[in-house]
Amino acid sequence: MRILVVDDDPPSVKMISFLLREEGYTVLTASNGPDALDIVEREAPDLVILDVMMPHMDGLEVCRRIRRTMQVPILILSAKGETADRVIGLDVGADDYLSKPFDPTELLARVRAVLRRAEAFGFSDSEAGFLTVGSFRLDPVGNKVFMPSGKVAELTPIEFRLLHYLVRNAGRILSHDQVLDNVWGYDYDGYANQIAVYMRRLRNKLETDPNNPTYLLTVRGLGYKFDAEAS
């Protein structure tokens, strides 16, 4: 697999590239946003590791521009590690967000998890990629959901993966650990609360009354489930 590392700090690029090559990945590098966009278009890497703090065009803008045309997995690196910063990174289309400084073993674990999720959720542009449950129809190529009302909601990659996992298991109660493992790919401090955050965001986009959800249910003390019967 080919991984593009984008960072304007040469020591960081050298360290991350070394770690990845030791694991058997082919590494491409870029020191700025425009070069990164050019490489993504020409080389079609399997994953982009993207630093946020870069001059002229920061990593968030690079992420936005990549997302306009393709669904290549993106792992954002940033010295800003607050929950709000992670949410912003995920909202612009990143698949994961890792705060600096980080442990090399965690970076590699995140890389494996993102690639594993990309493979699990890797659909073709064909009709066969759509998932229909009840009156909901999920489009994994466009990260969209067609709702019973006829409206179409556009989701971020994280929102889509969470909804897709719930819909695939419609009627089943899914624990926090199951959701973390299948949507985020690992058990990571802070993400248990993030599940609730993203459930609320999905309800705001999909439910008629987000405060009294019909489809996306919390089962107190147990986890979450998607109620297909309601549709």
SSE layout and pairings?
Blueprint: E1 2-6, H1 10-22, E2 26-30, H2 33-43, E3 47-51, H3 59-67, E4 74-78, H4 83-91, E5 96-99, H5 104-120, E6 131-133, E7 136-139, E8 144-146, E9 152-154, H6 157-168, H7 176-184, H8 191-206, E10 216-219, E11 223-226
Parallel strand pairs: 1-2, 1-3, 3-4, 4-5
Antiparallel strand pairs: 6-7, 7-8, 8-9, 10-11
Helix pairs in contact: 2-3, 6-7, 6-8
Radius of gyration: 18 Å
Counted beta strands = 11
Which residues sit in consecutive blocks of at least 5 with pLDDT less than 50?
123-128
Overall spatial form: elongated
Report the mean per-residue pLDDT as an integer: 85
Biggest sheet overview: 5 strands, parallel
Q: Per DSSP, what share of the residues sits in E-state strands of 2 or more residues? A: 15-25%
Number of helices: 8
Tell me the helix content. Answer: 40-55%
User: Strand arrangement, largest sheet?
Assistant: 2-1-3-4-5
SSE order in H/E notation? EHEHEHEHEHEEEEHHHEE
Structural class: alpha/beta
Our measurement of the CA-to-CA distance between the termini, rounded to an integer number of angstroms, reads 41 Å
What does this structure look like?
The longest helix is centred in the middle third of the chain and has 17 residues, at 104-120. This protein has a five-stranded parallel sheet, sandwiched between helices. A four-stranded antiparallel sheet has the order 6-7-8-9, covered by helices on one side. The chain has a two-stranded antiparallel sheet with strand order 10-11. The chain has helices at residues 10-22, 33-43, 59-67, 83-91, 104-120, 157-168, 176-184, 191-206; strands at 2-6, 26-30, 47-51, 74-78, 96-99, 131-133, 136-139, 144-146, 152-154, 216-219, 223-226. The protein contains eight helices and eleven strands. The relative contact order is 0.10. Helix 2 packs parallel to helix 3 (59-67) and helix 6 packs across helix 8 (191-206). Strand 7 and strand 8 form a beta hairpin. The chain is α/β, with parallel strands linked by helices. The termini are far apart. The protein is 42% helix and 19% strand.
